[in-house]
Amino acid sequence: MGHDHGHGSVGAAHRGRLAVVLAMSLTVLVVEAVVALLTGSLALLADAAHLLGDSFGLVLALAAITVAQRGGAPGSRRTFGYHRTEILAAGLNGLALIGLCVWIVVGAVRRLGAPEPLEAWPVLVAGAVGLAVNVAGLLILREGAGESLNVRGAYLEVLGDAAGSAAVIVSSLVVLGTGWVRADAVASLVIALLVAPRAVSLLRDVAGVLMESAPSDMDLAELRRHLCEVPGVVDVHDLHVWTITSGMPVMSAHIVVEDSIERMGQAHEVLDRLRVCLAEHFDVEHSTLQLEPRGHADSEASLHV
Predict the structure, then answer these.
(1) Any bridge partners for residue 245, and if so which?
(2) DSSP letter string, 270-304
(3) Which SS3 state, helix, strand or coil, does residue 253 take?
(4) Can you give the CATH number for the domain in which 241 is found?
(5) pTM here?
(6) Residue 8: per-residue pLDDT
(7) Helices 182-210 and 42-68: crossing angle, nearest 10°?
(8) Which one, of 139, 135, 143, lies nearest residue 11 by Cα?
(9) Is residue 49 part of a domain?
(10) Whole-number pLDDT of residue 80
């Protein structure tokens, strides 16, 4: 057996950025909530509620990344530590966003049927402040969005917040220019439509990890081909690849070696070559490889190709 252990959590590298964006989001949340209550703007209140959900998501992400750093102690049943906590937090975040969408839609439909007076100027200013802060948050999180599922979730949330602030700005301009106060309710529906797809996308990614699907960016046929091209390797079967958390793919496989591989030193060389292949071509730092001679598969009780 060959084992290669690399348990670094990518999300931890972006903890500081998440904390900064959280502080910024909470500031905008307070501003928008106060102005929404003073002006009666449903769109601004929806955007504030959206920010509340996103801030909750950021808190979950920060807490999950912190917990994930607790490695599995020797003898612990959690042999992969607490890395999957990040995925569970992302799932809770996605569910919260779905609930938020339902709340916004119900309120918007009611407001369309019974419009209320609206003070548009304060709404316009609050929307502009929110948009500026959200753009800054996107710049802060952009680097980590492609590396960590939690950071990606936070990035998508801030992106939705920016679009929501833009919708608030447009609706307030419409009210100022035409007096059509239902534009505020329409903007609320737009915010819900912006939130729902990314919430579903996030939940889909979380489900893929929890179901231990192979990473979407990994071609298993190509992986098998690379392994079979390693000197000393004849065939590969029982190949499994899954993800523990963001940026942490793991794999296991049975490696059939040539009959000439008889000594432990030779087996060690094959394992080293396999590990280098996995790390350089597929960014897999944790692997469990079983070396076996030709014909060994025939003696196994079951095969999973």
Answers:
(1) 248
(2) HHHHHHHHHHHHH---EEEEEEE-TTGGGGSS---
(3) strand
(4) 3.30.70.1350
(5) 0.73
(6) 43
(7) 20
(8) 143
(9) yes
(10) 73
